[in-house]
Give the backbone structure.
Amino acid sequence: MRVFYIIGVILCTVGGDLECSADTSKAQTREKSTACNYSDEAQRVGLEAFLRKVKSTYYKMNPNNVVYDPDSTPKSIRRDFSPYNAHPNAIRDRTDAARALCREVNKLHKNADGNKLKPRERKAIAQVKHFLQSNFGAPYDENYYAGDWLLGPNSFCWQPICNVGGDLQAHFTYKEWGIQPKTVDDVNFVIDRLKRLKNSLMQYIKNMKYGIKAGFVRSEEDCQYGLYSIQRAYLKVSQAGPNGILNETFTQQMLDPRWLEKLEKSSSEAWEKEHKATVRASINEALVEYVGKPLDSLLNYLEFNHSQYCVPSNVSSGLATLPLSHVYKTGKILESKQLENCQLGNL
């Protein structure tokens, strides 16, 4: 949703010019309309340039969503795509980028004379302010300084970690915009991105472990609902283990013969000669090794390990009571293990 939200913000202003151009091209004798042009005031404060800056920064900081960039091409998608990054420094970089742009739009808004702006321009400023205040439209798990990225999935699994499968499906597809292997380098690219996803999934587990030490833990009920929710997101893995990844809905396009139909015969033969396995077998193995296994580890950690440290709801039932003053295990305080003096800024 956040992707389409920012696209809407940009297109409601920038895209208007294109619509006007299309209309006027139908009637060459008609005087060109200026209804969709930016007002003089918007041009003075640099509104168009700022909106484009927000858009480009968003996709730079969120390369797992580049396929949704309306200006993207198959070449740029292939160049820029990378899975969701759960590392603390990456979360901090995204938060800092949103905050910097938020300060910039506040300054722009202050300098602009609202009475001289068009209604759609005032609306665009209001929308983009909200978008940036909510951390690029991602209020769950993406504000580094709030610390909620240490908590694990919530009841609705609204965190980006719950949609990494959707990211793969959107980019590794046989649709015209998708990343399809044609050469040996392309196959290596796909496997490399799957390795990066494994790294991110394992980091997500580390984040939750650090959350225990830092006092950022959900209540027992919230932990249970979060587990159910993420198990539902990766249902086949939760039911069948790592190999279940080959039955997940989001991997079916990668497993479809059409996805590899553009693979050069010489590349296929070279790969098989070097790796003693077909490209199809190697991709399947990579999916299990770099996606199925870490997802299985994440689900098992949540169910059998992390759940022990979730606290009774009479101790904490929301963000207002966090961080906790002690580490809890199976509902009891570990007296000998008080919380470390953890500072998010030092992560």
